[in-house]
Amino acid sequence: MSTILVTGGAGYVGSHVVKELLRQNHRPIVYDNLQTGHKEAVNDAILIEADLSDQEKLRETFHSYPIDAVMHFAADCLVGESVKEPLKYFNNNVKNSIQLLEMAYEFGIKNFIFSSSAAVYGEPEKIPISEDHPCLPTNPYGETKWIFEKVLKGFQDLGRMNYISLRYFNAAGADPEGDLGEDHLPETHLIPIVLRAALNGGVVPIYGVDYDTPDGTCVRDYIHVTDLAQAHILALKHLERGGNSGIYNLGNGNGFSVKEVIETAKRVTGKEIAQIGSGRRPGDPARLVASSEKIRRELKWAPAYPDLETIVETAWQWHRKHPNGYEKS
Length: 329
Ligand code: UDP
Known about the structure:
Elements: E1 3-7, H1 12-23, E2 27-32, E3 46-49, H2 55-64, E4 69-72, H3 79-84, H4 86-106, E5 111-117, H5 140-157, E6 162-168, E7 170-172, H6 190-200, E8 203-207, E9 219-220, E10 222-224, H7 225-240, E11 246-250, E12 256-257, H8 258-269, E13 274-278, E14 287-288, H9 293-298, H10 308-321
Parallel strand pairs: 1-2, 1-4, 2-3, 4-5, 5-6, 6-11, 7-10, 8-13, 9-14
Antiparallel strand pairs: 9-12
Helix pairs in contact: 1-7, 2-4, 4-5, 6-8, 6-10, 8-10
The structure holds uridine-5'-diphosphate.
């Protein structure tokens, strides 16, 4: 059993990881300001409600628990907002993350798992994207993830920390047991927006219908959030047994267009879903598809829910049961 500090553990991906840690008899200590996270999502884990910038609270947390490793999810993660408010992103995702890393080092912690993003790549030169693809982020959000990966590498080069950075493609779906789901305010992600339209009516805007893709809409690689969670557990085990630090992509290697996602949602829900072609969203690459060969090979990761139908189905189950999200359900 390990004690894991999980920053952002009440958020969408973090909470699914916390559930998996609990299931495997680890002790997650969730550190979350609950700005976008949900108390209801952390189950029986200890929850410390505080901001990442709160050095005193962070220090108290490291003093209070025998933390073995850190999983760091807490971040601002809206691409559009990052363009408008870049300093907010550099402060939280870089400065606060460095402070966390330094404090973890001070307390003798050796293993650090970081929630990174495909946004580090920017507009891809070739598909599928492997980890050695150049990183040229096209927005401050991607920049901050890329910078912090370099900070981690710097720490590792000095022998101060071992790390795994996981570059997620499009996290989607919900806990197959129905305990957890995706609930952002405002919601900006395609699958929840489509499912809410199926549930409550409303029209799904398609951001760009003139991309150089088969049907003109953006193509993304959707990965089930529970498969992401499993990757974090594998990363933890890898570091605990003395494995090398490294960076891994996480996707399924299949690209689906926005229109294909809507069609899949129509099949899964049995409902009509209205859509309207709209302008492009700034900073959206036409196609993002991962090669996850490295994590399959080195950490033996194998997704349990790789097909889009299942991903949408699990999300639909949660949305149907929680039409107003966590609090008001
Ligand atoms: N998208 C869309 N309509 C929406 C929300 C998203 O057409 O209401 C598109 C978006 O432009 C992107 C894809 O769906 O091409 C996935 O977007 P999402 O925000 O879910 O994830 P991202 O790829 O930005 O991480």
